[in-house]
Amino acid sequence: MTESSKNAISLAQIDQYHENYLARKDAKVIQRSVSHQGILATSADFASDVDMSPVFSIDLNTGKVANQKQSGRCWMFAALNTMRHHLADLFNLSNFELSQNYTNFWDKFEKANYFYENVLATADQPRTSRKVAFLMETPQQDGGQWDMLCAIIEKYGIAPKSVMPETYNSSKSSELNSVLNTKLRKDAITLRKLVSNNATDAEIAKTRQEMLADDYKILSYSLGEPVQKFDFEYRDDDKQFHADRGLTPKSFYDKYIGWNLDDYVSIINSPTDDKPYNKTYTVEMLGNVVGGRQVKHLNVTMDNFKDLAIKQLKDGQSVWFGCDVGKSSERQKGIMDVNYYKKDELLDVDLSMSKAERLDYGESLMTHAMVITGVDLVEGKPTKWKVENSWGEKVGTKGYFVMSDAWMEEYCYQVVVNKKYLSEDLLKAQSENPALLAPWDPMGALASN
After folding, report:
1. Helix ranges restricted to H, 92-173
2. Which candidate, 41, 129, 208, 256, has a CA 20 to 30 Å from the CA of 200?
3. Cα separation, 326 vs 331, whole angstroms
4. In this predicted structure, what is the pLDDT of residue 185?
5. Which of helix, strand or coil describes residue 296?
């Protein structure tokens, strides 16, 4: 028997597995149910519907939900939603949206340039190196993180949705992403050849500018050219008419939002051995604006994580957060609860892993960003959280979801809070230079669902 064949599955083993399977008296009942209805429907525990009723002791009024449709811009929608909540309160303007297409245009344009920067930085590495392969896997995509939107706003400002509305390609982005990624991979071939042929810096810069000109053209055809100057006309909730003339995206942001984005910092919970708490981290090759704001995370305990979110909610401000939305989540009802599906009990197997183990072994990472707009506190402790999603009003409770506190502990990885809520120790830790994580670290995952 060869070394490789001694671990082959034998017919005797299969016979034993068959006997083990039939030893469970309800095996055939489970087989019929699961094979006809699927694992999730069969394992659903509807007691969770009662536990996750959408009633909260702190409940911000944030209006109608937005709809990202068939795009992966959840992070962008969520961030702009936190800003429109603020604008609505200041100017008595509910059910208003900022232009997700405006920030989408500049994000994709800047991501192209960021990709070129990374291609040139790794041009001396073989095409088969892990970093080069990582770059070529997805040159750009819809997904992103909070700091990346801040980088766009700091450079380009924002605009009302009324002056740069959605297009076919912003709402259904697969065609545009396919074309852009094909072009960027082709550009990578050209840039790597220039470097290998010892082209001058001037020759490379000229080629890069030509590439960016084509990128701008593709995006303008697909999304429309970004608005540069506009008039902002609206009626507030008291039906009073307002007109603000000759605004730019930068002046609009300054007047109608006015946040100092440096005050808002990313807080993560990653209980893995490689990321001690109360330390900051960044991720290699993660970003969009070359020379712009750096992605930076402060890792804290889950108790601190939740406490910071609650402090911001108590002050009447919603909280951007990132999570793994597909885990233990019932999309149509809008329930995120670790007890919703009892797959272990149904299948008679142990599927349990710790949060750290899921991160270390590729079982979980941040996939989606939403906004926390409420929390239910019982004797000062959170039991469930109200979540504003960006999947339209046909899911959840008119688009709002309920997240159990236990689900937050297991599957939430990031919140963004004003740093005024940080303790002195955490504020000091947040100000430190970040440690550099590998490009494929789970804390570099882009929210894109």
Report:
1. 100-121, 130-137, 146-156, 168-171
2. 129
3. 8
4. 98
5. coil
* Rounded distance between C-alpha atoms, residue 220 and residue 223, angstroms: 5
The candidate with the shortest Cα–Cα distance to 334, out of 273, 407, 275, is: 407
Token pair belonging to 324? 């793994």
Q: How far is Cα 143 from Cα 368, in angstroms, rounded to an integer?
A: 9
In the predicted model, residues of the chain with pLDDT beneath 50 are none
d(CA 94, CA 286): 35
Burial class (CB in 10 A: 0-12, 13-18, 19+), 440: middle
SS3 358: helix
pLDDT tens track for 342-383 = 999 999 999 999 999 999 999 999 999 999 999 999 999 999
Q: List CB contacts of 302: < 8 A, sequence separation 6 or more.
A: 269, 271, 409
The first and second tokens of residue 120, run together, are 């040139």
Q: Which residues are catalytic?
A: 74, 368, 389
- Closest-CA residue to 83 (of 313, 412, 317, 248): 317
Say which residue the tokens 């590729």 belong to.
Answer: 362
Q: 424, 114, 126, 401: which is closest to 278 by C-alpha?
A: 424
Residues whose CB falls within 8 Å of the CB of residue 95, separated by 6 or more in sequence, listed in order: 63, 64
Side-chain-side CA neighbours of 145 within 13 Å: the count stands at 29
- What percent of the chain lies above the pLDDT cut of 90? 97
pLDDT at 5: 78
pTM of the model: 0.96
The amino acid that residue 254 corresponds to is: D
